[in-house]
Amino acid sequence: MSDTIKRGFKTALGRRAFMKWSSLAGGSAAVLGSGLPFSLSASEKKAETTPEEKVVWSACTVNCSSRCPLRMHVSNDVITHVEADNTGSEEWGDHQVRACLRGRSMKQRVYHPDRLKYPMKRVGKRGEGRFKRISWDEALDTIAGSLKDIRSRYGNEAIYINYGTGTLGATVSKSFPHSATMIARLMNCYGGYLNYHNTYSSAQYTVGLPYTYGGSGWVSGNEISDLVNSKLLVMFGTNPAETDMGGGGHIYHLQQARERNPIRTISFDPRKNDTTVVSNDNEWVPLRPGTDAALIAGMAYVMITNGLVDMDFINRYTIGFDEDTLPASAPKGASWKSYILGNGPDKTPKTPEWAAKITGVPVHKIESLAREIATTKPCTITQGLGPQRHVNGEHTVRAIAMLSIMTGNVGIPGGGNGGSMSAYYMPFAGFPQLENPVKTSIPVFLWTDAIWRHEEMTSTTDGIQGSERLKAPLKFLWNYAGNCVLNQHGDINRTHEILQDENQCEMIVVIENHMTSSARYADILLPDLTTSEQFDFAYQVDAGNMGFVVCTQPAVSPMFECRGLYEVCADLAKRLGVEKAYTEGRNREQWLELIYANARQNNPELPSLQQFIKQGIVKQKRPGKPYVAFEAFRQDPEANPLATPSGKIEIYSERLAELASSWQLKSDEFIKPLPEYVSMWEGHESELAKKYPLQVYGFHYKARVHSTYGNVATIKDANRQEMWVNPVDAEARSIKDGDLMRVWNDRGELRVVAKVTPRIVPGVVAMGQGAWYSPNKDKVDLGACINTLTGQRPTSLAKANPQHSNLVNIEKA
Amino acid sequence: MAQYGFYFDSSRCTGCKTCSLACKDFYDISVDRDWRRIYEYGGGDWEQNKDGTWEHNVFSYYTSISCNHCDSPACVKACPTGAMHKREQDGLVAVDQDRCIGCQYCSMACPYGAPQYDAEKKVMSKCHGCYERVAEGSKPVCVDACPLRALDFGPIDELRAKYGSEASIAPLPDAGMTSPNLVIKPNVQAKPSGDKSGSVQNSREVK
């Protein structure tokens, strides 16, 4: 073992702690021998003898909605291959949680040539990728010095922890939410940092839907396993075959439920996605992106004019459906029924003919599906997060819920509230958090705005929370295990421009495993450990009827000079004079012991820590029946009101009406009290469509989880970065399958190969989001990252990323 | 002699390719070779109505195919050196790389694309049914990897008793050609072998 690796290893955990834990884990300390990870030779036969081979539990801690356990096979301190969970039985609820192609390729991430090896500082311009190796001491001194300097000139509000979801589910090496990271803990000891609210994934959903159902943040639908009780499944932009594709994730549970209860499924989506390929009774109904609310208004017209609305439900549980149940403050004609029948301000009946023109869905289809959805009970209506990632997304999420509300499916088994399907979460515990003294919070999508126009940003212009206005410019950017400095944020070329001015954002610290496009913009770049090199607990996400947690353990010694974040932040705390507050006298091992003790208090059925380390994984089947959202409200709405102002489902939201009048909105911005269809400023009906006639969006792709795994050669080869083009659009432009295309709009230009396929609706093109940005000298992106084409203009209500609302043109390159 | 074979459930397969990538990880197979290939097959037409809306009859489904360890293996017949052989003990077809001269006749002969040329070693390589794992009582890596349990492996008699005998769906050739030890549960959208209404949609992703 080299001295470097030895040093890294010692600082990562401390020798004593490592010996103690690893002896329980199967004696990895005994095989810390000649680790030569980059000399792995390609051999098709497994080695005849595998001396001291051991199997170490780890996990794929990326940001899909699974968190699959991995069993790393290790020989001589080198990972030889990865296998999936082999515990449990084939019984649903005790099943193996089998990792997908991404987790199974983890070895390539650990040993990738892009792996960051030692601390570096930037020597070229931001984004050029020119760095110089420095010592850990120099790196940490520089960071501490910059924090002190910026804090003294601008205060703590100038320090920001960027959105990062590269390592999730863990307790120590956790990058999301930012408030639970070790960096937040460190900054909270040092006076705090500027908060963010919302996420890039779900802002319009979490901001919009609570206006209908109350509360704040995430609104859960029925548990996915509850589909065994349903008679019809209606999905809007739902594709767990690519978004939750691990064997513990939603696709497995969807499959299991539909095999037990083979119900018909209707999928509304611009693409015939992989979820609609499986099972035996699927109908794909293609529609134009961002028009879901128009489709629903058309179906509502059919239901209302044919007496198909469940009026008993409407009358008892909702307000605002018709004029009689509007709040006193609402003007006449403001009800949903008036909007649908054309008796509202726009005087436009939302007939199937009206909806067909907007959505591209034929009139006969809108009529027949409306009847089917209204008369098949119980019916599960659900949405993924694609429909909401648009200019009008906050309204779309509420519109989809209207289908569940009009059909009386809310709060019953086999039904649902129109929200995303949920899962059972077994009780566990996280790293104890400290309070942030800074209360100001910006919408997550507006961090680049906070760099160059903070003085304009107030609560009524930009959704600033915790303060009337933003008091300081963003000067210090922490970025841990995230790729939103560039790749995953809107409008790459604009972001690049903003970050070029080093007098604005003065310091960017990136902590990463690989040289990502965000890492190229770092001023100081720190090499992080992978999950395979450290102890932690990895907690499930959307795991249907069975929760689980994995004790992730060091499969191999820390590589190069990579260090764990807890230990790095402890060294910084020393430099900032807050070491005691940060560590509370504990090292990582002691924190994990405390966290596990807390977890056992929350969940007494957990085994002892020693046993957990030994067995690697704990699974717990959900007790009782599948979760049904708002079941108590449905059973007795007076005793169990919703957390809305009225206690009922608010089809008309008085709160939104108030925001619409009190917020400072631009002429084309909009906040509607009803879940209306609003045409997008960058959609197929907009003026810009004359110049750029095709809608484009980036779907979640099996090749990556966002941008993670985006540099793994075998996965890239097996799942090409190609743009889906309908044969109608391809023929009109003489584009053939396999042709290289030029794709552009006013914001940027890229090159990508055409996949000419009937599986996408005409007028729309799409490709996987998260591909690694790779510009040539003319800023043409040869990596085909969707954010070369997306914008930075936020939505009206959530001030969120409408990253699916884009127009482009294409031609053969 | 036992004869082993694969079962594939096309109604469960989402085309995720975990089977293929797990195989590559286990055997350290280079990027340019796929011992297990996932074909996206599909077709259909679009027609525009007068009001601008669209009608379609699009279909698509996946097949995941490695080597089918055929009763009449075309690769074995085409091999001039005897390197490609059918194992007596389990009926699995494997290549003896020490005898292979890399002429690639086997890959030209196989209608399933199973033999894959190893450009580095200049010999053929292919799925051998993980016979070492099978001998130890395990299933092949791909079968154990499938998140949706769309694959199975075992004595072909048992697989056929359990799952039937269908093996002729597009884009695969008719099973009459080589008598593959393969059983397929067709996706409801599946077309028979020889279908002309669709085509392989991901030709650049399969070797």
Describe this structure in words.
The complex is a heterodimer of chains A (813) and B (207). Chain A is of the alpha/beta class. Among the domains of chain A are: 204-419 and 646-662, Dimethylsulfoxide Reductase, domain 2, CATH 3.40.228.10; 687-812, Barwin-like endoglucanases (Beta Barrel), CATH 2.40.40. Chain A has 26 helices and 29 strands. In chain A, the strands form 8 sheets. A 6-stranded mixed β-sheet of chain A has the order 5-4-18-17-16-6, covered by helices on one side. In chain A, strands 23-27-24-26-25-29 form a 6-stranded mixed β-barrel. Chain B is of the alpha+beta class and 207 residues long. Chain B has helices at 18-27, 74-78, 105-109, 131-135, 141-145, 156-163, and strands spanning 4-9, 37-43, 46-48, 54-56, 59-65, 84-86, 93-95, 116-118, 123-125, 151-155, 182-185, 198-200. In chain B, the strands form 5 sheets. In chain B, strands 10-1-11 form a 3-stranded mixed β-sheet. In chain B, strands 5-2-12 form a 3-stranded antiparallel β-sheet, with no helix packed on it. Chain B has a two-stranded antiparallel ribbon with strand order 3-4. Chain B is globular, with a radius of gyration of 18 Å. The two termini of chain B are 32 Å apart. At the A-B interface, strand 3, helix 9, helix 13 and helix 25 of A face helix 1, strand 2, strand 4, strand 5 and helix 5 of B.
Task: Sum up the structure in keywords.
heterodimer, A: 813 residues, alpha/beta, Dimethylsulfoxide Reductase, domain 2, Barwin-like endoglucanases, six-stranded mixed beta sheet, six-stranded mixed beta barrel, 26 helices, 29 strands, disordered N terminus, B: 207 residues, alpha+beta, Alpha-Beta Plaits, three-stranded mixed beta sheet, three-stranded antiparallel beta sheet, 6 helices, globular
